[in-house]
Amino acid sequence: MSGNNQSRKNWTKSLTIVMAIAVVGAVIGCMADKKAVNTDRLYFKNTAGAVLFDHGKHTNSVESCAQCHHDLYSAAQATSCQECHEADIVADEFEHAELKEIHSRDCAKCHEVMDEQAQAASCRQCHPGMQPSETQTNSCTECHDDSFTADMLEHDEYLEIEDHSCLGCHTPQAISQVYHTNCTSCHLETLPDRFTTAGGDVSCGACHLR
What CA–CA distance (Å, rounded) separates 156 from 81? Predict the structure, then answer.
């Protein structure tokens, strides 16, 4: 009989220790400041070898969503600060990076976002496989008479004109040129050891998987 009591005491003691460890673990877990990593990995297939792109990591590091999704956001479509704040709050008092931190990098807090149906499904929807021409901007005379020149208006003024779009004036770059320009320039600046060879050249294998 005493053996059963001893076993019961040992079992109760063990259970108490396990529960105490679980409670302490839960408390420590709640107190720890662990930031969840937003991972949204995509594979871009191309003839040079697929590229693994982590959208979540890039979302937290690029200057602006518009750097890639430029057709979805527009500075000319900025929402007035007064729609959410008092009259004495103006955007000019903050750096763009500060505003992104305040609003957890949610561009839609300040910028109107194009309708979901108008959003590009992929970069290839606008950017062709081959560069159509070396000229990156269309001639004004394609739509206007000879008296019209591009320097008549500021860039923001063009965007404010109804029915004006980027493609109305700009020729979209080839998809490979867009990726290489945006990705390589940033990689070389932020992580040169990872994305360059020993000789300092761009390391294609750092992005393209074989």
Answer: 19
